[in-house]
């Protein structure tokens, strides 16, 4: 089965997820977090680097649990930038009075 290419929004969301998990991991080693989450260190490395932009839900749930993050908090943080872009695109376009002919 061929997988569809990721959209730019999915790639960006994956990068935000990776950054969030790296920050939450803090000084804990990648190996310790991966083993406690029952995933391979390579999988965690790929998620943190954004190379796996759409990891499986159980994988993220396991990592979040290990790091003491709620899934609601994870989703809120990684989708925040998308909401800002969507909100800005909904704003009306105004033109400067001197540019209106």
TrEMBL record:
Residues 29-74 form the HTH cro/C1-type domain. It comes from the Bacteria. This is Helix-turn-helix domain-containing protein. Gene3D superfamilies: lambda repressor-like DNA-binding domains. InterPro entries: Cro/C1-type_HTH, Lambda_DNA-bd_dom_sf.
